[in-house]
Amino acid sequence: MRLSEIMSHAGLSGYAEVALVIFLVAFLLILVAVFAPSRKREFDAASRMPLDDVHPQSPRQPPGDAS
Amino acid sequence: MNPQLESYRYDDAIVRKFLWATFAWGLIGMTVGLLIALQLAYPALNLGIPWLSFGRLRPLHTNAVIFAFAGNAFFTGAYYSSQRLLKTRMFSDALSKFHFYGWQFIIVCAALTLPLGFTQAKEYAELEWPIDIMIAVVWVVFAINFFGTIAKRRERHLYVALWFYIASIVTVAILHIFNNLSIPAGPLKSYSIYAGVQDAFMQWWYGHNAVAFFLTTPFLGLMYYFMPKAADRPIFSYRLSILHFWTIVFLYIWAGPHHLHYTALPEWASTLGMIFSIMLWMPSWGGMINGLLTLRGAWRKVVEDPVLKFFVVAVTAYGMSTFEGPMLSIKSVNALAHYTDWIIAHVHTGALGWNGLLTFGMTYWLAPRLFQTRLHSQKMAEVHFWLATFGIILYVTAIYSAGLTQGLMWRAYDSTGRLEYPAFIETVARLMPMYWLRAVGGSLYLAGMVLFGYNLVRTWMTRPATYDEPVIQAAPLSKDYRDHAAPRPAGALARFMQAAWHRTWERLPLTFTVMVTLAVLVASLFEIIPTFLIRSNVPTIASVKPYTPLELAGRDIYIREGCFNCHSQMIRPLRYETDRYGEYSKPGEFVYDHPFLWGSRRIGPDLAREGGKYPDLWHVRHMRQPRDIEPKSIMPSYPWMLTNTLDFNGIQRKVDVMAMLGVPYGGALTNAPAMARAQAESIGAAIAATGGPSDLADKEIVALVAYLQRLGRDISAPAAVTAAGAP
After folding, report:
1. Which residue is closest to B533 within chain A, CA to CA?
2. What three-state secondary structure class fits B126?
3. Pick from B81, B475, B499: which is nearest to A67 by CB?
4. In this complex, how many residue pairs, one in chain A and one in chain B, have their CB atoms less than 8 Å apart?
5. Of B421, B445, B461, which residue constitutes the final position of a domain?
6. CB contact under 8 A, A38 and B247
7. Considering only CB atoms, which chain A residues are within 8 Å of B242?
């Protein structure tokens, strides 16, 4: 039996709905990740990254290690 | 001084190299564009030279502008911005140089082989297999260098521009490899392993995503870096930029089939492509708004600074072409626009507006910094801006009207129910004023380009004797870094909403890259595999047989001359198409077409049912001088086909490779040259008998005539039995 015959009879038409659900979930996860209020400070720092060629903007030392 | 600090320098020499390459190839690519635009208005401009004819130069123009001009522009910006965003020098200077020289060598190879007629006949993937392998190698070197740089960075978070670069690098590699899979049939000749519908599907999955991941995402990365730089303020919304990134990566990869509406592609695929294209409206406009609003409160600067002027119009052009793209993907709009100049206008809004102007703005911003001097003339940059902007407006309005005019003429019926313009040439002749206007617009844009080069050279001439390379100090990333000890909220939902998980893999380039690759691959597999594996998608037609050896040789001449650049072989199931060209094309008719030759633009009429329409002698005379038969024709003349001797012995190899790809060749497997000679003798004799030249039996023209006379006839051959799933 050829692979193409197996695929033809596998009843893949339901995949569209599965894909829809997966995509929707992925999209919601990203929305949460992006709009979580706790991340405002971090994003503000990140958005300034192009403006400074010299000083890294995101934390580079373990917390509490002042430098 | 902190003993932990490390010292490094940015490598700007490589950026300067890419900058010059961008300008040089841009100038060449656009000049070739102007030349072929003029050839459409005045066909004799190819001077009767094979390598100056439209079909061979058009791929050179598109490849030069996409991969040489825009490609080098992306590398310029990426090498400049990545080092600074990652606070480190590039991973390896040697790899940077290999990338630079390798890429330029590939472009030189392309510029030599395309005019000589070596082509795979797939749009933007024309380059033959040895060059394809070089592209893969150089791209992998670039990837190693880029990811190596990320690995030794001193900035933990990856700025969003880098995400766009990562997605581009990964996806272009995947697209390039899968679309170019082919079996060599000579040092510069190969046949795609896919045939017909499947080849078309792969090609436009590639073709559309080449636009997405070579012309859009890299330049969005550049926008997210250089727009804030030039405006001296952060991007309007960093959150929106992340949303922009993920939605673009998720959606773009599905949109390809909208290039194949109403063709023999299964309808579910084309509907899928349309829906995802329409969804792309949202993220594209989100990105445009994000770019433009970065200038909020700084519009005063736009008045004074040519760099920002370029950026504003570039981002606006991005908005316009990403509005138009989804609109064109709607089937009913596409029925009118497909095969017309409307599509040409659309891509030029994108290429001249978005890619071109963004590149100019970026380069004017970079030049004084890279050459460590003042820009030679702000005024000249202003003039360049206006020349380019007016050039674009002239170009696209002319070509929009050309596209609409021709599309409407093709579908016009008179009051008696017959096609109002049954002669195709009428719909071409009407476009001539627009073609001249387009050439004027293109000339303005090119004039701006010359000014750009002059300004750059003069700026470069005032550079210091040695460039200052400041030493920068930064602490390395600490290995035992732990995330901020943010207060741990009670409740699972609240902890989830804190989104520490996303934050974590934003910092992990490897995980991040895997996620992007997954998004791209899953989409591709879901969309493409069913066409290959579900048999009802390509019903076979019993009467469709492989091309004879001579016809196969003729098909390769058709490919060499780039006929598919102006002639489609795909009749859509629309009344005005079947009335004009005959029975619509079926998927089963193309099962032996390695590669497919459906075409995407009808500068000349469709040829899917050309076979038997005219006598052999008509074709001979028409190829020698189209204007002997149709005075208003704008087709190039191909006199060399009547004098070039056909390489009969080389045909065996073509047949062998086709057989390797599964084409059932039977008797031709052992004596293809003899079979081809016999068929050529009989065609040559028929041409001589009807009053034509008597010395054509061993010339290329005979093979081409054999191929053209075969086109579209199998379906009405006596044994025509259509059966889904028949062996």
Report:
1. A4
2. coil
3. B475
4. 132
5. B461
6. no
7. 30, 33-34
Provide φ and ψ at B679, rounded to 5°. Answer: -65, -40
- Whether chain A has a CB inside 8 Å of the CB on B224: the answer is yes
- Same domain for B191 and B42: yes
CA gap B159, B667 in Å, rounded: 62
CATH code of the domain in which B603 resides: 1.10.760.10
Helix (H) or strand (E) holding B411: none
User: Of B434, B461, B488, which residue is a domain's last?
Assistant: B461
Q: Based on the domain organization, do B561 and B453 belong to the same domain?
A: no
What pLDDT does residue B160 have? 94
Q: In chain B, how many domains are there?
A: 2
| B641, part of any domain | yes
Q: Does A9 touch chain B (CB under 8 A)?
A: no
Please name which of B332, B723, B335, B257 lies closest in space to residue B531, comparing C-alpha atoms: B257
- Taking all residues of chain B, what is their mean pLDDT, rounded to a whole number? 91
Which residues constitute the domain of residue B620?
549-716
Strand pairing partners for B370? none
Is B497 in the A-facing interface, judged by CB distances under 8 Å?
A: yes
**B190-192/B182-184 β-pairing:** antiparallel
HSE-up of residue B677 (Cα within 13 Å, Cβ side) = 9
pTM given for the model: 0.92
Q: How far is CA B203 from CA B148, B160, B272, in A?
A: 31, 29, 16
B7: enclosing H helix or E strand: strand B6-8
Residue A11: predicted pLDDT: 67
Q: And the tokens for B557?
A: 């001449």
Question: In terms of domains, do B147 and B259 share one?
Answer: yes
Residue B468: inside a domain, yes or no?
Answer: no
Cα distance between residue B685 and residue B718, in whole Å: 26
Cα separations in angstroms, B541 against B31, B41, B226, B262, B265 = 46, 41, 55, 19, 16
Q: How confident is the model at residue B724 (pLDDT cuts 50, 70, 90)?
A: very low
- From the DSSP assignment, how many helices (H) and strands (E) are in chain A? 3, 0
Going from N- to C-terminal start, the domains of chain A cover 16-49
**Domain for residue B497, yes or no?**
no
Chain A residues whose CB is inside 8 A of the B10 CB are: 53
